[in-house]
């Protein structure tokens, strides 16, 4: 699931560093999924994006347009800065654009540098993805007197509307058996329990799907459980998604 965030960008072609004492650069409004062109082409570009983090991690992905005959190899680097008043303090850098450990609601700057051995960079196409708004810790089924208790927990949630539970006997056709509201926004562990009071005898598959406030959704995990109501010992056996019995 991908969620776009509002950003402000400063396109800087003459220098890679910030101002004196790490002061933040002047910024201009910017829209995502935009092609930044360079005419004539150049061997080096850099720009910076200011954003308010919507979650604990972000995934930036910038595509560089180059002429292969002029730029046989290219080096790129992403840098993450935290904004503290008028100061921009570097905290992480890598070549993937994936950063974790952010504080939701805090202001950051993402910097991008592309360097070609020769000339040939004609543009950069920008995109950013926010990691899934829910950090799932576990999802499993537990025996209950009158059915199956489905339990799960999240480590953090961002704009989480809720969770839908689906059941299937063939892992192909799914029946919606219930829905629980999410915590919305949370950085604490949230625990959930849903009781399937009408389980099907034999192997059943249970799918946990998370919904955002904007209607986006993602299937978080699928588990399989064997249920035999006549068993006096333990009517529950656990299976993987291939129908193979596993220890639990």
Helix content: under 10%
Mean pLDDT: 76
Strand count, sense and closure of the main sheet? 8 strands, antiparallel
Order of helices and strands: EEEEEEEEEEEEEEEEEEEE
Low-confidence stretches: 1-17, 232-236
Number of helices: 0
- The radius of gyration over CA amounts to 24 Å
At a glance:
This protein has 248 residues and is an all-beta fold. The protein contains no helices and 20 strands.
Give the helix/strand layout.
Elements: E1 7-12, E2 28-30, E3 35-42, E4 44-52, E5 57-60, E6 63-66, E7 74-84, E8 87-94, E9 98-100, E10 107-116, E11 121-125, E12 128-130, E13 134-144, E14 147-168, E15 175-186, E16 190-196, E17 202-212, E18 217-227, E19 236-239, E20 245-246
Structure description:
- This protein has strands at residues 7-12, 28-30, 35-42, 44-52, 57-60, 63-66, 74-84, 87-94, 98-100, 107-116, 121-125, 128-130, 134-144, 147-168, 175-186, 190-196, 202-212, 217-227, 236-239, 245-246.
- 0% of the residues lie in helices and 62% in strands.
- A hairpin with a 2-residue loop joins strand 13 (134-144) and strand 14.
- The strands form 4 sheets. Strands 13, 14, 15, 16, 17, 18, 19 and 20 form an 8-stranded antiparallel beta sheet that branches. It has a 6-stranded antiparallel beta sheet with strand order 2-1-4-10-7-8, with no helix packed on it. Strands 3-11-6 form a 3-stranded antiparallel beta sheet, with no helix packed on it.
- It is elongated and about 75 Å long.
- It is mainly β and 248 residues long.
- It has no helices and 20 strands.
């Amino acid at each position: 699931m991908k969620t776009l965030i509002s950003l402000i960008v400063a396109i800087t072609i003459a220098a890679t560093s910030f101002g004196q004492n790490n002061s933040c650069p002047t910024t201009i409004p910017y829209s995502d999924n935009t092609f930044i062109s360079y005419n004539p082409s150049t061997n080096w570009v850099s720009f910076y994006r200011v954003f308010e983090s919507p979650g604990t991690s972000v995934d930036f992905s910038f595509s560089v347009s180059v002429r292969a005959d002029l730029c046989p190899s290219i080096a790129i680097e992403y840098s993450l800065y935290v904004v503290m008043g008028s100061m921009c303090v570097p905290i992480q850098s890598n070549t993937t654009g994936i950063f974790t450990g952010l504080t939701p609601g805090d202001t950051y700057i993402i910097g991008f540098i592309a360097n070609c051995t020769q000339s040939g960079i004609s543009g950069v196409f920008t995109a950013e993805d926010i990691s899934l708004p829910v950090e799932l810790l576990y999802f499993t089924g537990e025996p209950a007197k009158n059915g199956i208790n489905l339990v799960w927990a999240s480590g953090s949630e961002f704009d989480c509307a809720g969770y839908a539970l689906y059941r299937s006997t063939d892992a192909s056709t799914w029946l919606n058996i219930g829905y629980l509201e999410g915590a919305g926004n949370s950085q604490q562990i949230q625990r959930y329990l849903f009781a399937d009071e009408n389980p099907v005898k034999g192997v059943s598959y249970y799918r946990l799907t998370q919904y955002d406030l904007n209607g986006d959704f993602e299937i978080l995990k699928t588990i399989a459980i064997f249920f035999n109501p006549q068993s006096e010992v333990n009517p529950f056996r656990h299976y993987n998604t291939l129908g193979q019995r596993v220890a639990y």
